[in-house]
C-alpha cells in the first residue's frame, strides 16, 4: 500500500484500541468517586479496583494461548475480541444504572447498589484490559516484518494515548447542564451513554477493517467427508452442509476457549511460568515500570482532590469541602489528559527516537524522567507545577506501550538466538526415563536442517519438556503408529522455544494487570497508616527507581546476550 493508505488502515485497525482506552480511562477516573459516594470506604474502594486485574491474571494466559490455537472461520483473534467487547458493553450499561437495577429488588437497598457497581467495575476492568491481548496479537499476525511491526505498535501506542486523552477529558467536562444530560437523567448517565456510542462505533470499524486469513473455514469446506455420505440414506448435500455446520460450531470462540482451558491449561501455565530468559528479564522490568506508572495514574485524581485541594470526598454535596474535592477531581483529570497528550506526541516520535538513540536509551530516559516527575509531585504544593510534571509522565507511558511489544516481536523473529531450547536426553535405566538437560544454541543452518528428523525417543508417548514450556506429541510413522525408542539413549528435539506470540503478549499484559493489583490492594492501607495521600506519589517514585535498575538488564539486541 502507499504510505498514506497504510497509515489510514493502521488508524482504522486500531480504532477499537482507542475506544477501549477511552472507556477504561474514563472508568478509572469516574468510578472511584462513584464508589465513595455510594458509601464504600477508601480502603475497600482500592480493593474493588483490583478485582479486574486479579481475574485478568487468572484468565489472560488461557485466552492468549486459546487465540493462538483457535481455528474459527472468523479468524484466530477476532472471536475473542467480539466476546470481550460484549463484556465491556455490558459493564458500561450496568455502572450508571446500578441504583435503578437495585431498585428492582426491594430486599437489596444500598448494599445491592454497591454490589452492582462492583460487578460493573470488575467487568469493565477485566474485559477492557484483557481485550488488548488479542488486539496486540492481531497486529503481530498482520505485520510480520520488523519495520512494519514497529510502525504498527507505534500506531497502537498512539491510539492508546489518544484514547486516554479523550477518556480523561470526558469526565473533566461538566455534562450536567446539557440537554442530553437532562434527558438521560444526570452526569453519569450522559457520560456513559457517550462511552457506549464511541465504543460500538470503534468495534464495528476494527472488525470491518481487520482481515484475518480463515483457518477452520477452509478445512470445513473440504470435499473429503462427502465420500462417507449416502451410506445412511441421507442426501450427500444435506450431509455435507450438516458436517460443515458442526465443524464451524466446534471452532467457535467459546468452545475453543473451553477446550483449551480443559485440555491445555496445565501446559499453558507451565509455559506461562517457565518463560525464556530474555522474556523473564523484560517482564520483570516491565512489571516494576508499570507499577510505578499505575500507582500514579490510578490515584492521581484522588491525590489532587484530597492532597492539593484539601477536599473531602465523603462530605455532603454542596458543602465547601465537597466542592473543593470535585474541583480537584476535574484538575486531576486535566493532568491525566495532558499526560496522554504528551504520550500521543512521543508515540508518533517513537520510531525516530529508537533509530537515533536506540531502544535502551529511550527506555531508560523515559523511566528517569518519570521518577523525577513523581518526586517533584511529592514535594510540591503548586497545582501548576504538579500538572506540568504529570504531563511529562506521558513519555514513560508511550514507551511502555511500544518498546516491550516490538522487542517481543524481535525475539520471536530470531527465536534461535534469543530463545534457545534446552537439549533433553532420555536415558532408559531399569525401565525409568531419566532426563538430562543442556542449553543448545542453534545456528540458522542447523535449524534449516530439519529438526523433525530427531523426534524419536519418547517411547510413543506425548511428553512435555522439563521446563514445561513445550509439548511434543508422539511421532507418527507413515501407517499412523507411534515410533518406539530402541536405543538406550535418545535425543529429544533441539532448537528454540516454540511459543506462540499470543502467549508472550499475554505475559506482558499480565505484568500490566499485576501492576494494578498491588496498588489497589495495599495502597488504601498505606494511606490510612501514613494519614496522607502523598503516599500514592511516593510509592510511584520508589517503583520508578527500582524500574530504572531492572531496565539495565533487559536484552535489547544480540550484544546484550554476550554481556
TrEMBL record:
Sequence segments annotated as region (Disordered): 474-495
Top-level taxonomic group: Eukaryota
Membrane topology, from the record: Multi-pass membrane protein
CDD domains for this protein: MFS_SLC45_SUC
UniProtKB keywords: Membrane, Transmembrane, Transmembrane helix, Transport
Compartments, as annotated in UniProt: Membrane
Keyword hit for Transport: yes
Transmembrane intervals: 12-32, 44-67, 79-95, 115-139, 151-170, 182-205, 282-300, 331-350, 362-388, 394-412, 505-527, 533-556
Record InterPro entries: MFS, MFS_trans_sf
GO molecular function, one term: sucrose:proton symporter activity
Gene Ontology cellular-component terms listed: membrane
Record-stated family: Belongs to the glycoside-pentoside-hexuronide (GPH) cation symporter transporter (TC 2.A.2) family.
Protein's UniProt name: Solute carrier family 45 member 3
Protein encoded by which gene: LOC112252582
Amino acid at each position: 500500500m502507499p504510505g498514506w493508505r497504510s497509515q489510514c488502515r493502521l488508524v482504522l485497525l486500531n480504532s477499537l484500541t482507542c475506544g477501549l482506552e477511552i472507556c477504561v480511562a474514563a472508568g478509572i477516573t469516574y468510578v472511584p468517586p462513584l464508589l465513595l459516594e455510594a458509601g464504600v470506604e477508601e480502603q475497600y474502594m482500592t480493593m474493588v479496583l483490583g478485582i479486574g486485574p486479579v481475574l485478568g491474571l487468572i484468565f489472560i494466559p488461557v485466552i492468549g494461548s486459546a487465540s493462538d490455537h483457535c481455528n474459527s472461520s472468523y479468524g484466530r483473534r477476532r472471536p475473542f475480541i467480539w466476546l470481550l467487547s460484549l463484556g465491556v458493553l455490558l459493564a458500561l450499561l450496568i455502572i450508571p444504572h446500578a441504583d435503578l437495577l437495585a431498585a428492582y429488588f426491594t430486599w437489596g437497598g444500598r448494599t445491592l447498589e454497591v454490589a452492582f457497581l462492583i460487578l460493573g467495575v470488575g467487568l469493565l476492568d477485566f474485559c477492557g484490559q484483557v481485550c488488548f491481548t488479542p488486539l496486540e496479537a492481531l497486529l503481530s499476525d498482520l505485520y510480520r516484518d520488523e519495520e512494519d511491526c514497529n510502525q504498527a505498535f507505534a500506531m497502537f501506542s498512539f491510539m492508546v494515548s489518544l484514547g486516554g486523552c479523550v477518556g480523561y477529558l470526558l469526565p473533566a467536562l461538566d455534562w450536567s447542564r446539557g440537554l442530553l444530560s437532562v434527558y438521560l437523567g444526570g452526569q453519569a448517565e450522559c457520560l456513559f451513554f457517550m462511552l457506549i456510542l464511541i465504543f460500538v462505533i470503534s468495534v464495528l470499524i476494527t472488525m470491518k477493517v481487520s482481515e484475518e486469513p480463515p483457518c477452520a473455514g477452509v478445512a470445513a469446506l473440504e470435499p473429503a467427508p462427502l465420500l462417507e455420505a449416502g451410506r445412511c440414506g441421507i442426501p450427500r448435500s444435506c450431509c455435507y452442509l450438516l458436517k460443515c455446520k458442526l465443524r464451524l460450531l466446534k471452532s467457535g470462540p467459546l468452545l475453543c476457549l473451553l477446550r483449551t482451558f480443559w485440555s491445555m491449561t496445565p501446559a499453558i501455565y507451565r509455559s506461562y511460568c517457565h518463560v525464556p530468559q530474555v522474556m523473564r528479564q523484560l517482564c520483570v522490568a516491565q512489571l516494576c515500570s508499570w507499577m510505578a506508572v499505575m500507582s500514579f495514574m490510578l490515584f492521581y485524581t484522588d491525590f489532587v482532590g484530597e492532597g492539593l485541594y484539601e477536599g473531602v470526598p465523603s462530605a455532603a454535596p454542596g458543602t465547601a469541602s465537597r466542592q473543593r474535592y470535585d474541583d480537584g477531581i476535574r484538575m486531576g483529570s486535566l493532568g491525566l489528559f495532558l499526560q496522554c497528550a504528551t504520550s500521543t506526541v512521543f508515540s508518533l516520535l517513537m520510531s525516530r527516537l529508537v533509530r537515533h538513540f536506540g531502544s535502551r536509551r529511550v527506555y531508560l530516559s523515559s523511566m528517569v524522567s518519570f521518577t523525577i516527575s513523581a518526586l517533584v509531585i511529592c514535594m510540591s504544593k503548586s497545582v501548576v507545577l504538579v500538572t506540568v510534571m504529570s504531563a511529562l509522565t506521558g513519555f514513560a507511558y508511550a514507551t511502555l506501550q511500544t518498546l516491550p511489544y516490538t522487542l517481543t516481536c524481535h525475539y520471536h523473529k530470531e527465536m534461535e538466538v534469543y530463545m534457545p531450547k534446552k537439549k533433553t536426553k532420555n536415558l532408559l535405566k531399569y525401565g525409568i526415563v531419566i532426563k538430562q538437560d543442556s542449553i543448545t544454541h542453534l545456528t540458522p543452518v542447523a535449524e534449516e536442517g530439519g529438526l523433525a528428523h530427531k523426534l524419536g525417543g519418547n517411547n510413543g508417548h506425548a511428553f512435555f519438556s522439563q521446563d514445561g514450556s513445550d509439548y511434543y506429541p508422539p511421532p507418527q510413522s507413515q501407517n499412523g503408529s507411534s515410533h518406539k525408542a530402541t536405543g538406550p539413549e535418545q535425543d529429544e528435539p533441539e532448537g528454540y522455544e516454540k511459543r506462540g506470540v499470543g502467549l508472550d503478549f499475554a505475559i506482558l499484559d499480565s505484568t500490566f494487570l499485576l501492576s494494578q493489583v498491588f496498588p489497589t490492594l495495599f495502597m488504601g492501607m498505606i494511606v490510612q497508616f501514613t494519614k496522607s495521600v502523598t503516599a500514592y506519589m511516593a510509592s510511584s517514585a520508589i517503583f520508578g527507581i527500582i524500574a530504572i535498575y531492572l531496565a539495565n538488564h533487559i536484552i535489547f539486541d544480540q550484544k546484550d546476550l554476550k554481556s
